[in-house]
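Entry 14. Structure prediction run on the chain below.
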Amino acid sequence: MYGTCENEDCGNYMWPCPLPDDHGAVICGPCGTPVTNITDIKPEEGTVLPEWISEMLTQQSSAD
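Output returned:
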C-alpha cells in the first residue's frame, strides 16, 4: 500500500510513501494533513492515479 500527500504546501507533496497492509488512518508526518490518496499500486513519483481508479481500489478493498 502507498499513501500520497496531496497538500501542495507539503515537502512530501505527491511523494508515494509505503504503508503497511494493516494501516489505520493515515496522517502526513511533515504537514499533518489526512492522506486519502491510498492505493496498492505504486504510483510513479510526481503523478497521481486518476480519481476513478482510486475510488475503485477503495471500494474493492472495503469489500474484502
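The chain has a mean pLDDT of 81.
Filed with the rest of this week's runs.
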